[in-house]
Amino acid sequence: MHEANDIRAREFDADETSDSIEDGGFLDVPLRRSDFLAGAGKFGIGALGLSAFAGFAPAALGAARLSRASQTKALTIAMIENQSGPYYTDNFEKPMRAYLAKNAPTWNATFGNENNSLPTGVQLFNQYGAANDAAMILLSAQPITGYVPSAKKFQGGGGILINHSTSALGGANQNVMFSHKQAGVGIGTSAVAWAKKNNIQPVVALIGDLTDAQPKKRTTWAWNTIKAAFPNAQLVGQVEGIDQPTGATAAANLLSAHPNINILITFDGPAGLGALTSASQAGKKDPNSFYIGVTDQEVQTLDIVSKGGSIMQSNWGVFFAASAIMCVRDILKAYAGQKIPPVRLLFGESLDTPAKAASFNTIAFNPTDPKYAYVFTKYNKYLDTPVGTDQVPPGQ
After folding, report:
1. Which of the two ends of the chain, N or C, has the fewest CB atoms closer than 10 A to its terminal CB?
2. What is 180-318's CATH number, 1.10.1240.10, 3.90.226.10, 3.30.1330.40, 3.40.50.2300?
3. Which value, to the nearest 10 degrees, does the dihedral of the CA atoms of residues 9, 13, 17, 23 take?
């Protein structure tokens, strides 16, 4: 792994260029006039003033070569999701399709589900590559090293790859990196505030993605934050759980072994829902004496927090619909021959009151509303230095 000063990057604002969601302004880096004229029809955009393409940036030379290879491919963005369900439909599929329909109507999007299985995901990846799709977005929670050979083959043939998984994939055109540490710190901070308010000495258990070093940071940093505020806090157990069945089983086993647990931190919404069921069955129903915090969010868990009165009292809000649109924008830029930053950090905020949780979906699912345009810049930051497989930028 690189030392921190090897990876430290020049930081971009997420709206570094002059493009906007509404005007399809993703062709704002100069291209050669001949390249633009040759590619515009394939790219699926309307005619634009050619004065914007008067020059050619030398830094974009590699990107232009990629563009020429990519333009022999089908105008399809294939996305592999780690699970299926309303969460993925609402946060990724709908915003991507809507953005393409408005800004690049000759492009299509297709979606597959790895079903939390690495072999299934790799099979899908190879299938999309064989279909000659121009670009792929990978959203996997599996060990990312398993995708390396397929990714190299896909990109070697001119494919554009954005990795939106729980860990970085070296060599991807761009890695979109969920800040696992920030999520853990944020939910841990909310748990600390709850414990102080209710005069609770924390007895903590974690239900996390423990097999992967990066996503494990969510629950680890939640515990670190609690421990820093309460030196006498106890961590009585941590168990693997990333979906509803495993979350339910993990919580049931933890509470059976340690009935004095009063703070339970879960990796994601599905695990949180399972944990909520088991905790309720174990008699943990008082929100003043028991706390479930989720280092992610989904519609059901947000609804629970928004209504109040539940032992599930916080979610980590990340604006994934905006991130999905940014992935599409960057793919279209790369296809047009523009250089895109190799890393984008994805931040969020703790939704630890009913009011915050209630308003989140309105904002998150309407990122193209001018009132909410700030989510593109406030919660995203581009970096100009790539990371290798399983690496993170400094401080993450």
Report:
1. N
2. 3.40.50.2300
3. 140
pLDDT level of residue 72 (50, 70, 90 thresholds)? low
Token pair, residue 258, equals 């340690």
E strand residue ranges, 44-97:
74-81
- CA neighbor of 175 nearest in space, from 394, 391, 395, 339: 391
Q: What is d(CA 355, CA 361) in angstroms, rounded to the nearest whole number?
A: 11
Domain 4-172+319-349+363-383 and domain 180-318, same fold? Reply is yes
Our CA angle for 140, 97, 87, nearest 5°, is 45
- Give the Cα separation of 63 and 73 in Å (integer): 16
Identify whether the C-beta of residue 271 lies closer than 8 Å to the C-beta of residue 250.
Answer: yes
pLDDT at 103 over 90: yes
Closest CA to 242 of 213, 277, 275: 275
- Mean pLDDT for 249-262 is 98
Classify residue 308 by its DSSP letter. Answer: -
| Residue 90 scores a pLDDT above 80 | yes
Q: Is 313 exposed, middle or buried (0-12, 13-18, 19+ CB in 10 A)?
A: buried
| 8 within 8 A of 385, measured Cβ to Cβ | yes
The per-residue pLDDT for 213 is 85
**42: Cα separation from own chain's centroid:** 29
The model's pTM: 0.74
Q: Are 272 and 314 in contact (CB under 8 A)?
A: no
Residue 167: CB partners within 8 Å, gap ≥ 6?
143, 144, 212, 213, 214, 215, 389, 390
Instruction: Give 107-124 pLDDT, tens digit per residue.
Output: 999 999 999 899 999 999
Q: Which residue bears the tokens 């609804």?
A: 303
**pLDDT tens digits, one per residue of 351-365:** 999 999 999 989 998
* Token couple for 255: 């509470």
Q: Which of 356, 242, 262 is nearest to 305 (CA)?
A: 356
Diameter of the chain by CA atoms?
70
Question: What are the structural domain ranges in the chain?
Answer: 4-172+319-349+363-383, 180-318
For residue 131, what is the DSSP state?
Answer: T
Please give the backbone phi and psi of residue 80, each rounded to the nearest 5 degrees, phi first: -105, 115
If phi > 0 it is left, if psi is from -120 to 50 it is alpha, else beta; for residue 260 that is alpha
